[in-house]
Amino acid sequence: MHEYGVTERIIEIVLDKIKEIDAPEVKKINIVLGKLTSFVPESIEHYFGFLSKNTPLEKAELKFIAKDMVFHCEDCKEDFNEDDMIFSCPKCNGENIQIISGNEFFIESIEVNDGKD
Amino acid sequence: MEKIEVMQDVLSANEYIAQENRKHFKKKGALVINIMSSPGSGKTSLIIETIKRLKDWKIVVIEGDVEGDVDAKKIEETGIPAIQINTSGACHLDARMIHKALQKMNDEKVDLVLIENVGNLICPTSYNLGEDYKVVILSLPEGEDKPLKYPRIFQVADLLVLNKIDMEGPADFNFKNFNKIINKVNPKLEMAPVSCKSGKGMDKWIDWIKGVHAKDQD
Fold first, then answer.
1. How far, in Å, CA of B79 to CA of B178, rounded?
2. What are the backbone angles phi and psi of residue B211, rounded to the nearest 5°?
3. Residue B215: helix, strand or coil by DSSP?
């Protein structure tokens, strides 16, 4: 159920947006999702399938743009791009690690039908 | 097809409501602690034992459960009001649920609000509630390797309460290994080993609450 609430929120945001721009139908929703968030794209897609029914979003494809985890070592000032969570600096073993990227979760853009294709 | 920029954070609504909750709690003068753990590690027991030891404090408990009010009833037996939130399937509390709970509180001043989150080590880490501190409980029978499996919760927490220390022998809990793991996951994490059953170590936990409460009043 973890993804249920955020899927509702995604739909809410997009519905607000198309109301604002007066677009009839959404084709695609581009979502930036950091690897450090524990949200699972397949699960969001699953909930989206039935939550978007009978809305202008029901035919929309969800595109997830994965954001790598980037860490910064406060000790040696190096940045590291990692696939997994790290707890100490791979270079100097320092433990003052800051997370620079990987926590993102936002709707970057939507693609709407403008009648041209 | 036309591409329209949105650039809107999915969790920003939760964050906004969490900030509102924080303001409301501050007005009440309350220190707010969000207690998280897996099911069965002793969240309700810790809350009950805390209430017994802070008799002069005005405490309110917010109980988050998927279904039912078993824990809220246990809390109310101590004479402390418990506000039950049923998440109807959701595996965590979010700021909106706490906002609703706040509306059920009267205008009186409160010293301490203890929020018992839904038993889960993953989902609660993504949702701020408007709390001042996050506390995670790990009970010895769960094993010392939990922080390696669920690192995030041990990183967002301000304090780790290590419960059921009376079960060290039967639980086969390796403290040496555990300290190594915690050093790797979050070397700065403060720890309070307790047994809610025997009362051992509870003083340290109570001192921690008093300490952060005093700091909050500054």
1. 37
2. -65, -50
3. helix
Interface contact B4-A4, CB threshold 8 A: no
ipTM of the complex: 0.88
- The answer as to whether A65 is a domain residue is yes
* pLDDT value at residue B13: 86
**pTM summary value:** 0.86
* Structure confidence at residue B149 (pLDDT): 93
B96 in Cβ contact with B14 (< 8 Å): yes
| B9: closest chain A residue by CA | A106
In terms of C-beta density within 10 A (0-12 exposed, 13-18 middle, 19 or more buried), how is residue B39 classed? exposed
Cβ distance B8 to A95 less than 8 Å, yes or no, reads no
Closest residue, chain B, to A110 (C-alpha): B4
- Res B107: pLDDT: 80
- Residue among B217, B193, B205 nearest B53 (CA): B205
Say if A107 is an interface residue toward chain B (CB within 8 Å): yes
- Residue A82: strand, helix, or coil: strand
Q: Structure tokens of B61?
A: 């408990």
Domain membership of residue A117 (yes or no) is no
Chain A contact set for B13 (CB, 8 A): 9
Is A116 contained in some domain?
no
| Ordered DSSP codes for A35-52 | TTS---HHHHHHHHHHHT
Q: Number of structural domains, chain A?
A: 1
Q: Which residue of B has its CA nearest to A84?
A: B151
For residue A87, what are the domain limits?
4-111
Is residue A92 assigned to a domain?
Answer: yes
